[in-house]
């Protein structure tokens, strides 16, 4: 990202696919930041500080990095070409993992409007893209919002 190299569309699409399929649980981090697989976490998202920094512990920083990387890959993909269901799905997962169901829902609605406004678009929004939002609403016992999704 910061090296100035512009990747081809095929390369970034493949990278987006890899990032979207690796999942946060593979990294040993669940939604609440507990550490279950420190080997993957330390290999992929090691902290250069080696400890806590200004009240932020290493585990919290690793969790933030675990969500930041897929978001950055999807942003880079969307800037290089049009947003796809895969790139938007990554952002939805990241937003809901941070507890922002409203933001994720707005993102999906904007993506849906952009699909409908473009007659050449062949993109579809799959139901699996809505699942993280639905799950977050159910976990927070917000039944009316869950049913509106």
Structure description:
The N and C termini lie far apart (34 Å). It is built from seven helices and no strands. It has helices spanning 9-22, 38-44, 58-80, 85-97, 101-117, 127-139, 143-148. With 149 residues, the protein is mainly alpha-helical.
Quick tags:
single chain, 0% strand
Provide a short characterization of the protein structure.
The protein is mostly helical. 62% of the residues lie in helices and 0% in strands.
The succession of helices and strands, N to C, reads HHHHHHH
Low-confidence stretches: 26-53
Total number of beta strands:
0
Query: Main beta sheet, described?
Result: none
Question: What is the radius of gyration computed over CA atoms, rounded to a whole number of angstroms?
Answer: 17 Å
Mean pLDDT, as a whole number? 75
Report the span from N to C terminus.
Answer: 34 Å
Q: What general outline do the C-alpha atoms trace?
A: flat
Proportion of β residues?
Answer: under 5%
Number of helices: 7
Please state the structural category.
mainly alpha
